[in-house]
Amino acid sequence: MEERLQKILAGRGVASRRKCEALIVAGRVKVNGQTVTELGFRADPVRDRIELDGKPIKSETLRYVLFHKPKGVITSVTDPQGRKTVIDCIDLKERIYPVGRLDYDTSGLLLLTNDGDLTNRLTHPSFEIEKTYEATVRGLPRQEALESLRKGVLLEDGMTAPAQAKLLRAARRAAGSAVIQLTIHEGRNRQVRRMCEAVGHPALELKRTQFAFLTLGHLQPGKYRLLNDAEVNKLREL
């Protein structure tokens, strides 16, 4: 059965579907010896010979990793400054890539996989995948601040979508601060930090505790585990 070329590439762990589209447009992909630059091109993943930069694309075992990212680790495959990346923390022979990102100074749940098609779906805004964070913020937010987060706040790049927000407790380690829980389905740059700042309670610490239905459980910072088949299938159903 023929499929779009970018879907085949993503399914074989080359990269996300969007990046695979860029590879095709750049003329780096051949099918049966012919360079393909059209995004609508379809190929048979079984019968056709598909090459990237002159090398055959082979099927890889698909891997799905749940990682407890510590602060001070880059959500990237490589870093030109030589800082530690999330890939450095995971010992797998397959090439895997982060699903979205967490900032350098943010900790918590991060998914990584070589399933480019699933990555595209989990990060596409139209699917509205929920992500939950615990933010240690300066001061004690009143109901007015929490209600603003629930309705959406105005940032420099526009209004945010309504969020789920609640006060959890006074912070134990930082005097004059509190911990709030915030659930969003958008993925703007440093969005949670900017939302907290916008309501007058800057985030001192930030941790992602949940992605869709997945949680950290007892996984310690710097550790990871492979998702089981049931979890992968449930992600696909989203």
UniProtKB/TrEMBL annotation:
Keyword Transport among UniProt keywords: no
Alphabetized SMART domains for the sequence: S4
Keyword vocabulary terms for this entry: Isomerase, RNA-binding
MF-aspect GO terms: RNA binding; rRNA pseudouridine synthase activity
Enzyme class: isomerase
One GO cellular component term noted in the UniProt record for this chain: cytosol
Swiss-Prot/TrEMBL GO biological process terms: enzyme-directed rRNA pseudouridine synthesis
Domain RNA-binding S4 intervals: 3-67
Gene3D superfamilies: Alpha-L RNA-binding motif, Pseudouridine synthase I, catalytic domain, N-terminal subdomain, RNA-binding S4 domain
InterPro entries (alphabetical): PsdUridine_s_RsuA/RluB/E/F_cat (IPR042092), PsdUridine_synth_cat_dom_sf (IPR020103), PsdUridine_synth_RsuA/RluA (IPR006145), PsdUridine_synth_RsuA/RluB/E/F (IPR000748), PsdUridine_synth_RsuA/RluB_CS (IPR018496), RsuA_PseudoU_synthase (IPR050343), S4_RNA-bd (IPR002942), S4_RNA-bd_sf (IPR036986)
Known EC number: 5.4.99.-
PROSITE patterns, per the entry: PSI_RSU, S4
Domain of life of the organism encoding this protein: Bacteria
UniProt-listed PANTHER family: PSEUDOURIDINE SYNTHASE FAMILY PROTEIN-RELATED (PTHR47683), RNA-BINDING S4 DOMAIN-CONTAINING PROTEIN (PTHR47683:SF2)
Family according to the record: Belongs to the pseudouridine synthase RsuA family.
Protein name per Swiss-Prot or TrEMBL: Pseudouridine synthase
Highest classification ranks of the organism: Bacteria, Bacillati, Bacillota, Bacilli, Bacillales
